[in-house]
Specification:
Structural class: mainly alpha
Strand content: under 5%
Order of helices and strands: HH
Number of helices: 2
Length: about 90
């Protein structure tokens, strides 16, 4: 196994991690921005106000994107297991 193969596996892992984190992070970002905008308009400066909507939004995003996320990580894991013989130089 050479350096290029290690870098390729690392890059693929980072891409999969970013793809899996994106729906959750974008949902939390959008909800947090909306609550922050609402707080600035109404001048309610409560720090804990955004927690419940973010938690609900992230739960909904997980329910919607969860099946896709699981299939992505399973296909990535299968691809890594299939690469083991070639990485060890056996085929």
């Amino acid at each position: 196994m050479d350096t290029n193969q290690v870098m390729d596996i690392g890059m693929q892992g980072l891409i999969v991690a970013a793809k899996l984190a994106a729906p959750i992070l974008i949902t939390a970002l959008v909800i947090g921005f909306a609550i922050s905008l609402l707080q600035s308009i109404t001048q309610i400066q409560e720090v804990t106000l955004s927690f419940v909507p973010k938690a609900i939004g992230v739960a909904v995003a997980l329910m919607i994107a969860g099946n896709w996320m699981i299939s992505e990580i399973v296909s990535f894991t299968n691809a890594m297991f299939e690469k083991i013989p070639t990485l060890l130089g056996g085929g």
